[in-house]
Amino acid sequence: MNSAASTPVAQLNGVTRIFRVGMEAVHALDGLDLEIQPGEYWSVMGVSGSGKSTLLNVLGCLDRPTAGSLHIGGEDTGMLDDDSLSELRSRRLGFVFQSYNLIQQLNVLENILVPLQYQEEKDPGGEERARELIERVGLSDRSEHRPQELSGGQQQRVAIARALVNDPDLILADEATGNLDTRTAEEILCLFDELSAEGKTIVFVTHESSVAERASHILRMVDGRAESVTVSSGAGGEDLP
Question: What domain range includes position 106?
Answer without folding.
Answer: 39-61+84-232
